[in-house]
Design a protein that fits this description.
Strand order of the largest sheet: 1-2
Number of helices: 3
Radius of gyration: 18 Å
Distance between the termini: 31 Å
Shape: elongated
Strand content: 5-15%
Number of strands: 2
Number of domains: 1
Order of helices and strands: HHHEE
Structural class: mainly alpha
Oligomer: single chain
Helix content: 55-70%
């Protein structure tokens, strides 16, 4: 789940405006804390996507710091050399 889909999910449930769009940050944080305690499946999907993206960025940064260059193979896999 991408960030915008997750944001739309939270807005739909809470009826609040996000702080980035001029909403109250305290109300937003309070709702998120209460909502996350319920173990929402949609929010867990967003969490998994976010963690995977962070791991990928970290791996790419490490490879680039070693002087490696990425390229895409015919099958679509990313290789480093």
């Amino acid at each position: 789940m991408n960030k915008q889909t997750w944001l739309n999910h939270i807005i739909e449930l809470s009826g609040l405006t996000p702080p980035s769009q001029g909403g109250n940050p305290e109300l937003w944080r309070t709702f998120l804390k209460e909502h996350n305690c319920k173990g929402c499946v949609e929010c867990r999907k967003r969490s998994k996507t976010r963690k995977a993206n962070l791991r990928r960025k970290e791996r790419e940064e490490c490879m680039r710091s070693l002087g490696l260059i990425s390229y895409r193979t015919e099958t679509g896999a990313i290789r480093w050399e």
